Amino acid sequence: MAEAQNSPTSGYATAGAPTGGLHHRRLDRGGRRVDRRHPYERAPSFDVADFPVPHGREEEWRFTPLERLRGLHDGTATADGEGVKVTVEAPEGVTVETVGRDDARLGRAGTPVDRVAAQAYSAFEQASVVTVPKETVLTEPIRIAVHGEGGTAYAHQVIELGAFAEAVVVIDHTGDAVLAANVEYLLGDGAKLTVVSVQDWDDKAVHVGQHNTLVGRDASFKSVVVTFGGDVVRLHPRVVYAGPGGEAELFGLYFTDAGQHQEHRLLVDHNVPHCKSNVAYKGALQGDAAHAVWIGDVLIEAKAEGTDTYEMNRNLVLTDGARVDSVPNLEIETGEIVGAGHASATGRFDDEQLFYLMARGIAEQDARRLVVRGFFAELVQQIGVPDIEERLIGKIEEELEAAVA
User: Fold this and answer.
1) N or C end: fewer C-beta atoms under 10 angstroms in the chain?
2) With b meaning 16 or more CB within 10 Å and e meaning fewer, what string describes 160-183?
3) Where is this region: Disordered (predicted)?
4) At residue 220, does pLDDT exceed 90?
């Protein structure tokens, strides 16, 4: 696949706390700074009334099939009590709580940046808070099962790690539901958190979510987002830093089938000095009207000296009729950085790889399976949870059976 390298351009700034919005600015002919923020970035808010109903012409909604969101975007979707069932399995020492809307821990990692996220925050009745105490190192993962039961739901989840705690969290979405949810990850200083979020919905499910992460001083965050199922899945991971030395790795794997819309919109806001980030998402598409969208925004603020960042998105189109929109954005406001770059590539099977394998006696269909399996292998290995890795490899095999048949 040909790789498109994009040169960084300046033009972002931020104001206020790390949970504030992303500001687009530029100079006018007189040298004055002119605000060019998107409407949803102009006023991040927990109040749904602060966001207009989207119509699809807005920058942040132009790729999303609003008519398939089942009313999540315009306020007509009403929670019916049969939306999702959430269960948490946690090792000893972990605290699992169900709290009300007035709990002080809610909203600390970030603020809703679009109408659906604000609707989710305004509409949930109780939130789940999972806390790993400081200096606790878990040897088994925390497992959160979100199972759709056919209805509509709004949800809020908080995962908090104390200073120098270490944990792996698996959030597994299955079944059928219309779900709007916010998830917060709060990492204390020196903490290490790996989150594996699996979207293995039934065919008719709709899932719109904002994931907010606040990375403490010298803390490490790794996210692995895996999306297979659902009619429409639209996820919005966002990362900000609470102190120097923080590291964030955001990995993603998606397999988009005929008629599915899978959209991943990321923002890493380097708002403090001497932090790192690495973003790598890969997707495969097959079937008529399969549509994958990847938007990767990395912002390096003027005060974020010593930043080291890279983002990459690659897509493999397996059949005619599939569409990919891939938009990497890198905005830099200081020249005092370690490194920054981004890349995007979309293409079909590599003929050279196929020829190499077939020349060694491997049948064409098997060769195609090997190419796709190798395409995803690096990201699957990032999961680090053997049973989840095995399950996802099995899902990939199922998809490939249809892709190369």
Assistant:
1) C
2) bbbbbbbbbbbbbbbbbbbbbbbb
3) 1-40
4) yes
**In terms of Cα–Cα distance, which of 155, 162, 102, 95 is closest to 129?**
95
The pLDDT of residue 396: 82
Sheet strand arrangement including 12-14: 12-14, 22-27, 33-35
Average pLDDT over residues 249-265: 96
Q: The pTM is what?
A: 0.87
Count other Cβ atoms within 10 Å, centred on residue 95.
11
Taking the alpha carbons at both ends of the chain, their separation in whole angstroms is 23
CA–CA separation, 307 vs 337, rounded Å? Answer: 5
- What does the alpha-carbon distance between residue 166 and residue 29 come to, in Å, rounded to a whole number? 51
- Beta bridge pairs of residue 250: 223, 279
Does an H or E element contain 168, and which? Answer: strand 166-187
Contacting residues for 116 by C-beta, under 8 A, at least 6 apart: 69, 72, 73, 180, 208, 210, 234
Percent of the chain at pLDDT > 90 equals 70
pLDDT level of residue 352 (50, 70, 90 thresholds): low
As beta bridge partners, residue 170 has 143, 196
CA dihedral 198, 203, 206, 212 (to 10 degrees): 10
Q: 3-state secondary structure string, 4-32?
A: EECCCECCEEECCCCCCCEEEEEECCCCC
Lowest mean pLDDT among 219-223, 233-237, 350-354, 398-402: 350-354
- DSSP secondary structure code for residue 370 in this structure: H
In this prediction, residue 4 carries a pLDDT of 37
